[in-house]
Amino acid sequence: MVKRKTYAPVPGQHISGQANKPLSQPPHSLTSQQVLDELCSNSATGLRPEEVPQRLEQMGPNELEQKAGVQPVKIFVEQIFNAMTLVLLMALAASFGIQAWIPGGILAGIIILNIFIGFFQSLQAEKTIDSLRTLGTPTCNVFRGGETMTIQTAEIVPGDIVDLATGDSVPADIRLIEAVNLEADEALLTGESVPILKIPKLTFDAKTGPGDRLNVVFSSSIITKGRGRGIVFATGMFTEIGLIASALSSSGNEVKEHRTRDKRTLIHVVWDPVGSWLGEFLGLTVGTPLQKKLSQLFLSLFCFAIVCAIIVMGANEFNPSKDVIIYAITTAIGTIPVSLLLVLTLTMAAGTKKMLERHVIVRNLSSLEALGGVTNICSDKTGTITQGRMVTRKAWIPGCGTYSVETTSDVYNPTAGQVFFHASQPIDLAGLNAEKKQGALISPLEEVASKFSLQRYLNIASLANLASVEQSDSNSTDSGDWKVKGAPTDIAIEVFAGRFGLNRLELSQGQKAQWKHVAEYPFDSDVKKMTVIFHHVESNETHIFTKGAVERVLESCKFITFGNETHPLTSKTSRDIHLNMETLASQGLRVLALAHRVNGSIVHESEFAGNVVPDRQKFEQDLVFYGLIGIYDPPRPESLPSVRACHGAGIVIHMLTGDHPQTAQAIAVDVGILPSPEKLQSLPADVSGTIMMTAHEFDALTDEQIDGLTQLPLVVARCAPSTKVRMIDALHRRGRYVAMTGDGVNDSPSLKRADIGIAMGTGSDVAKESSDIILTDDNFASILSAIEEGRRIFDNIQKFIQHVLAANIGFVVTLLAGLAFKDENGVSVYQLTPVEIIWMLMGTGAFCETGLGFEKAVADILNRPPQNLKYGVFTPEFLVDMVVYGIIMAACVLGSFTVVIFGFNDGNLGSNCNNKYSEACDPVFRARATCFTTMTWIFLLFAWGLIDFRRSLFYMPKGFKLWASHLWGNQFLFWAVFGVFFTVFPVLYIPKLNHVVFQHTGIGWEWAVVFIDVGVFMSLSEAWKWIKRIYFRRQSGRWREGPTVEV
User: Fold this and answer.
1) What is the pLDDT of residue 81?
2) From 185, 380, 670, 772, the catalytic residue
3) What structural domains does the chain harbor?
4) Which of 792, 796, 790, 787 minimizes the C-alpha distance to 652?
5) Is the pTM of this model over 0.70?
6) Annotated catalytic residue 526
7) What is the pLDDT of residues 72-123, one digit of tens each?
8) How confident is the model at residue 1008 (pLDDT cuts 50, 70, 90)?
9) Please, which residues have CB within 8 angstroms of residue 846's CB and are 6 or more apart in sequence?
């Protein structure tokens, strides 16, 4: 089967909202007839069938561009061609070249182990982001040649007329021609938490964002209500979702390259792609800060290893003999932290398992350490900070008071949460603090039994409603769960009525039903209200129940209730109602009015049986106003404490949402992202003016103007996907390290552009595939768990990197200084053999370093700023420590070698001792064994010393027992130290293994030298920590335990 070509816009040239071939204005800025004319289509007949093939050829099929999948060969090659592996490969080639089979074989095993561990981990992480292709429906109804037909969505072309009905997934971006009560769920695209009512007759400014284009429906959005017809203007990669797909597959370099291609010189044309490839190849320009730092380290060590080998050869007059070359190989191996990548991978894998216990799935291992450096979190609102489900927050009954509902995570359960009552109206509560504003806690069932006005209000709320709320019976698999059906707004109001014991199904269905449904007038976009007619069984009266937009309901009202009394609705009381509505709206609530009256005559169902039904105006007049109800998408209960904890950890939260500015601001204040209005007034004007913006205002600024802002906005409302990406870019230009959370398709580009993408478990597949981390419980608090774990891993990475690099310095200093020790033939004799060094790095070091990776987090890990990305792991203190400890190690090793050779063997270095054992080489082999044992035990105790960078290993403020229990707490490290401690004995005394493989021999009196040298190392390292404590006390007046954090 031949794969069809996929057409895509030129990067940076296609404008959001435009057609495949741009029209004179974006379609939302034109009338539907103008769009029809410019696309050469006809609403009466649709496109002629013979036109379609030509348009399909010109515009391309209506499908998204498909990227290449995982490329195992490329991943495998990347594991081989990095600086560390290249050094080991060179050492391997040199070893085999001089037939040093034993060290060569060991090196080969290490290389293979590192390559395959890296390969399998990378292979798992490199999944192709292709779930966007599955979002559209396979077929749709199109009007062509005067007939409606069902076709594949891929065959849709610009100019097609498409019919839409409830439940349809929109096949392309469509400018509506006509619509009847048509609402579309665009939450995954725009972040809007409720379905959007579409109005085809309106036109909008060209710069209007996707969330406010009420005359357009977007590809992959869902029609939740009504029906409509429209003309396709954008297909495939030219749709809004196509622009998201482009952003997912592009880092932005293509746009930059396209815009500057003509301005580059020949040097840039040649060097830019080469430099970019080289930087990627060596890992210098891609990956997390630690990955980049390690790539730079390995590249530096690669060069240093070559220099060291040259120095060794030069010191021996470039003698090509086998023992000289082995010395050069030994020195080169001593520069490379061969265990580092293995330990790093194991630590990350263990961290991943621990994260899973805390409801966090890590898709990209490297993101774990990067979490420790996160400075800013950009979060979507709907479904991330909020619950993504509508609930009733406030209810006001004139003459009675205001009811407030406590937000819970179980929003559909009418028995969950508490209800509070305050006898004042909302406008009088506006100036009170939160506790006084809430009022007194009430029992809903007792309250409704004692207040007749509340009963009537709740009757309207429950009956002017099409939603149902039911609890599963005990026989079902989900016994006790609450099941809901209906529009989100209706569900929220029905759950509120259910808190007081009223349920529409119980009131109007069954043998004990008090009400009998007669007719309904659905919500209409013109009248903005819905009305139901019920017959009251007991009184034999017909009742009219209406709810809707406040201004429209008031137009139909003639009276108002105050408590149990009814009064005429005057202009003054109407103004009071509007003021109360504005007060509730300022709290981010969507406010509806409830009204009712008893009809003068009985209305029968038969009056609505024919094609002609009575005019709704007949019933929607002379109504009695009963109150207001405010609903919203509530914050998750854990959002406020999580935001506060993030602030305590030095992390700034930005909320980027597609919602209305008032709603966004209210939620942001509720969860602590924005200060309260009172505190906001006290901020400087240049901060308070930009702390909250709309996407239109933010996008109107140039990059230079954004960079000039004192404070980047903490809340941006009406966000398009491109706005979120632009915010992340602005933070990057300020040197910030950004995590982005989200759950919708609209979050996908920003999830990928962010340094760390965090998706919600119930979010879209696209968001998950674009992310590095997934929260399985959709809990914003789990982000804190992830950051805490990331910081712990960062601290521990710093510890085990210090452990191995200090040893590398010790090895190199020892071997370079040891060039002065020459035998009878003038050849330098090495103090540590290649196998001994590899054994210590991979055997001793790898176990201890893995143990350090399992160290617990310090108590105040979330009460300190993020790691400084300027330094990353390699802080100034870290680098000084590395050199000091390395020199101390080298001094102890060289000291033990010198004492054995020159103190007790008259400086006898034998002959050919780098190649094999002989009687003449016995002193050298004993000296090597002493050096090996000394360094092994120093290496072990050094791991315990690194549990804290400044505090003494022997610090016992609460006694020996607690000190010992602390060491025992990390059992992996405890047993690694004790287990490896005893491995020196078999490698010292087993025949052949000692002389042939390790090139040392058993020792006797030399044990005294070992114990003295280990004691000297511990004394000097403790003295160094003491000096550091004094220094940092003088610097800051106090010193903080644990790894240093650069602020």
Assistant:
1) 66
2) 380
3) 17-62+156-238 (2.70.150.10), 296-355+787-948+980-1023 (1.20.1110.10), 360-385+636-778 (3.40.50.1000), 393-472+481-632 (3.40.1110.10)
4) 787
5) no
6) no
7) 777 677 666 665 666 667 767 766 765 666 667 766 776 777 677 667 756 6
8) very high
9) 339, 342, 343
